[in-house]
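Researcher: Please translate sequence to structure tokens.
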Amino acid sequence: MADIHADFIIGSDKKSVIWMMLGIIFLAPKTTFRCIQGMENRSDYLNATCYHDCLKYEYFSEFDSSIISEWDLICDRAWLVNLVQMIFMFGVLVGSIIFGFIADRYGRRPALIIASILQLCLSLILPFSSNYWTFIALRFVLGTSSAGLMVIAFVIGIEITGPSKRDIVSSLYHIPQAVGEMIMPLFAYFLRSWKLFSIGVAIPNLVFVIYLILLPESAKWLISVGRLEEAAKVMRQAAKFNKLPTHNMMEVAQSIENEYTMSDNSVKHTKVSYLDLITKPSLRLKNLCSCLAWFILGISYYGGNQYIGQTSSNTFLVILLAGALQVPGLIISGYFYKIFGRKPTLIGFSVMCSVCNGLLAVPDSWLYLKMISGTLAITAATGAFNTMYVYTSELFPTVARNMAMGASSTAARVGSMIAPFIAGLHQAAWLPPLMFAIIPLIAAAVSFCLPETKGQKLKDRLDEK
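Model: Translation complete:
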């Protein structure tokens, strides 16, 4: 039961999260406009040109309506489109903190259920937003719930999965996200208004109701807070489903609790705070480089997706390809960092991302080159992200690992908040590709400052050699 639940939780959550995170591509698609009613009743208004005396604009895109046409987000209001995504990503940052606290204090199950209900209810309410500011407020809260689903689903999936399958679940964690990105253009293709599209991606969230019935609490968390009888019950249910012996589960829970106690005693003299990530010489450089790499990857992945969605002549196809090519990117990166090491893999994918982004500066007439380059850039960013997840967890000792991952993840969220504004630099067509080409090279450069961790024993304490 545990293994099946882990796959189910991770799969359904990641698809929903990516629909919320990248939905802006179809909520605010590439749009041109023309003034059709002005105070001077002129008839010579030019396309995509702003006029101070225009009373009404006409919009042209592949969609019947978008948030751009709904609330006239053009001209001096165009920056409000990017604000939508920035506020959502800020919600993700806040949600990571809030739901992380709830999960550690009150349990993985209640935290995930709260996030799921929020995601379901607010995603169904969002299409009926009466104005822009209501819409953006709902998107902020959806960002917090998306963070809860994303973070807690991974933790509970790992904790309730048996040791023999834990590596597989970890390495396949991002694949449902890629599948979700592949499916998203299908919703947009058949639902050509932002309201119908929003309803379409919200309805599958009804699957979250199943959590109330099937989702068990993490036995590891129950043991960590001393609720051994409940942990033993969960373990008996999992053992029964997997056709394993179900007796003596209380003794097993007690032995695990004793291991936790011994582990705590062995490292109690090396308790670490977030301040130590900056002040300790052994952590400072690693933390700085890791946060910078995550910050850059946040810009590269989320900004790249939004940019190719805005500039492609066939948004549906290019986003579908971007999602499809992430699957081999994840598999190849997992193979590469296992065989060649974390540092070479991170550098290689960062350089590949840079080159592919640079090719996006070619003329629009080079349609297929731009399409292939854009999708490969996303593939490379995904591979780099997958590698960095493993790399960061291995760079830091046990006493500082969770804090280091939290700091790095926060840096990625800040990068994802900035990404829409880089993707929206339309003053010069070559500027966004240039920015997206230079930024990954910085990640490659900082990688040289980090030690290789392939085959190294994970450290537990700061003073461990």
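Researcher: Any highlights?
Model: Confidence is low (pLDDT under 50) at residues 1-6.
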